[in-house]
Fold this sequence. Notes:
Blueprint: H1 2-27, H2 31-38, H3 42-69, H4 76-83, H5 86-97
Helix pairs in contact: 1-5, 3-4, 3-5, 4-5
Amino acid sequence: MRMIYLALAIWGAAHPMYYFIIWFQAEGFNLGLMVEAWHANTASSGLVWDLTIAATALTVWILYEVFQTRKYGRLLAILATFGIGVSCGLPLYLYLRSQPKT
């Protein structure tokens, strides 16, 4: 399972980033314009809120477990979640937390 999580994290980083790069090439690096595009209609706004709530829940879970286990390297998954998306952050966290016990 560990390698599946890693593969999903890589895919979850690469696939969305492809579309972000295309968008930035066309529109320039304008985050305000990107957020505006995310809310172009009610369907896309619903998806934005769905992902925002999922990212928040994942962050709470990561913080809870990190402060319990003191494995601070797992906080990297929060950066991946908000820097790339839940599609990268969730499988990355599952990969990190499935490390063999030493």
